[in-house]
Design brief:
By secondary structure, the chain is an alpha+beta fold. About 35% of the residues lie in helices and about 30% in strands.
């Protein structure tokens, strides 16, 4: 399953200017906030979590929350996803891939989810 999301980075800049770190805490863990360099990075992280939830076919909500998804970086800086045990089991997730890019005032993320049972994913 594949999910994609696009966000205008000025939306994130406005949220951060208005609410500061509290805005980031709404959708990021402390570990993730430490990786955020600026509003553009935060925008990419938002898009990644939205893209993952779309790949599952459920969106962000009761079945998949922002804090069920954690973004971390490899030694060379590539973004990766770690998801809650609840999601791994519910959707039989066997592998995940993430790509985030920024261009001008937009951040885009694409997530591919492999499942051992496609019937489990809506």
């Amino acid at each position: 399953m594949i999910g994609i999301d696009l966000i205008k980075t000025s939306r994130m800049r406005g949220l951060i200017e208005r609410f500061g770190e509290k805005a980031l805490c709404r959708f990021l863990s402390k570990e993730e906030i430490a990786l955020v360099k600026n509003y553009k990075t935060a925008s990419g992280f938002w898009a990644a979590k939205e893209a993952f939830s779309k790949a599952l076919g459920v969106g962000i909500g009761s079945e998949c929350g922002f804090h069920d998804i954690v973004i971390y970086k490899s030694e060379n800086g590539a973004p990766h996803l770690r998801v809650s045990k609840k999601l791994l089991e519910k959707f039989n997730i066997s592998d995940l891939s993430l790509s985030i890019t920024h261009d001008g005032e937009y951040a885009i993320a694409v997530v591919a989810v492999e499942s051992t049972s496609a019937n489990k994913i809506k």
